[in-house]
Amino acid sequence: MYIVLIQLKKTNMLIKIFTASFVILFASCKSSEVSSSKANDNTMNESELKTLDSTMINEGFHIGIISYQKESDCAYVIIDQTSNAKLDPINISEDTYKLLRNNGEKIYYKYRPLRRMNRCPEANPIELIDIKKREG
Q: At the fourth CATH level, which superfamily is domain 46-133?
């Protein structure tokens, strides 16, 4: 009788170990699945980007890319995505735009055209009203 009880305890212990191992293995598989889906959520797919673009355009924004021009009188130029026009934002040196002054930065921007002499021949002067970083 005593031997049977010892064997039952060993069997019970083995069942507990296998159950705990299975739970840990199952939980770790789920966590990697969640982390991979979170990684996919951080990047916008093309349809979400187009929806966001159309929303921003409806709000009065334009889509462009900031270009740093080392040898020019206007250091930063915005290249409009739809018309490929080069725009010289005269107030981009303000602190509010500091984080977006990166070469190749994709942006949404609102501007006011200026009637003044050009600082550089390749771009038309503008005053930025609002600017936001564009994902994608």
A: NigD-like N-terminal OB domain (2.40.50.500)
